[in-house]
Amino acid sequence: MSILELITLLIFMAAAFTLINITVLKLPSTIGLMLIALIMSISILILGYFVPSITEGAEHIIAEFDFEEVLMNVMLNFLLFAGALSTNLNKLIEERVPVIILATIGTLMSTFLVGFLVYNIFPLLGYEIDLIYCLLFGALISPTDPIAVLALTKQFGLSKKLEIKIAGESLFNDGVGVVIFLTILGIAKAQAGIHEPGGHGAGEITAASVAMLFSVEVFGGLLLGAVFGFCGFKLLNFIDNDHVELEVLVTLTLVMVGGRISEMIHVSAPLAMVVMGLFIGNQGRDEKLANATGEYVFKFWHLLDEALNAILFILIGLEMLVIAESFTVSNLAIGGIGIVIVLFARFIGVSIPITVMKRFREFEPKTIQILTWGGLRGGISVALALSLTDIAFPDEVKDTILFTTYCVVVFSILVQGMTIGSLLKK
């Protein structure tokens, strides 16, 4: 299929599935769309037993669509910018300490805890995985998915302080998580003797180089986002709503050019997009500054955000076709244990920092429980796991990581996503 045909198919499915969800299921959009896509994937697999060409055709279409490339290098930038655009800047600044600590220390704690638990528990079921690969899994599964989290927080009557903690952490720990993943991936490649042009060769990874890579990715992304955001805001202020179509084009240009430059100079594009969106957004600003970015811009990005969200969660559901061969009893047991490990690590990564911070600032009741259960995983984790398929690591390692990741993501969105409302009410 051509690119145009693939896009046409995805938009048709997004419209059809959204209609079914609104009229029949009446679930939150992200949950409903993914559930429908999962049901369709299972139906295709069942029909494939009787008519193999159906399954082969569906798998071929999904294989043509490079999920990792499309999400990480295209959709993610737009979705993070749109999410940050509607975030209240003043409230985020007020809650900057817990947001930064949870997004950095919390994510690091979860990464290493998941890695060490997997390294020690999976062998009991016959899955021997080197520690570096276990840490790689911990890095890709630890950051919460801002796309899934933000879509749900908008639907519940949370206090503004709790809502901004959840939204802010998910926006920033995504960028931090991707940097941690890339850092550990570089170490894993060096240990495996994989050389890349312009990359680290085997044996060249040192503590200093790891710290430098991490610092450049994080602070470089923040700086680039601040520069682009400041310039973009000044330009929108100059246009002053006289040409709404130009304002939209300016914001599109900022995201697309900023993303490409981030990739070229090897800094974190997700962090750049978040900072850029915060600069240009009008939430939490005084009236004069808030009016610099016209209402038309926000309506456009809201529409784009909803459309891309729909397509993303449909794709996550359809990815089941890619890993269908891995559905065995032993793999399902591994997936179930992986879910428990990730939830436990999330609880520890949230509870320890918050318990320490409670000595200096006030937190809403049950914050730890809400952040633990509301820490949804989504497309970013799946995309990072899929990115390993092109690397010369052992196939059994890649298959185990991908399958476990998919189990955690599906459980996270369907089970945690569908029950978080009841938890909040309770």
Automatic annotation (TrEMBL):
GO molecular function: potassium:proton antiporter activity; sodium:proton antiporter activity
Gene3D superfamilies to which the protein is assigned, alphabetical: 6.10.140.1330
Domain Cation/H+ exchanger transmembrane, first and last residues per copy: 14-426
Coarse class of the protein's main subcellular location: membrane
Keyword Cell wall biogenesis/degradation set for record: no
Family to which this protein belongs: Belongs to the monovalent cation:proton antiporter 1 (CPA1) transporter (TC 2.A.36) family.
Protein name, entry field: Sodium/proton antiporter, CPA1 family
Species this chain originates from: Ekhidna lutea
Organism classification: Bacteria, Pseudomonadati, Bacteroidota, Cytophagia, Cytophagales
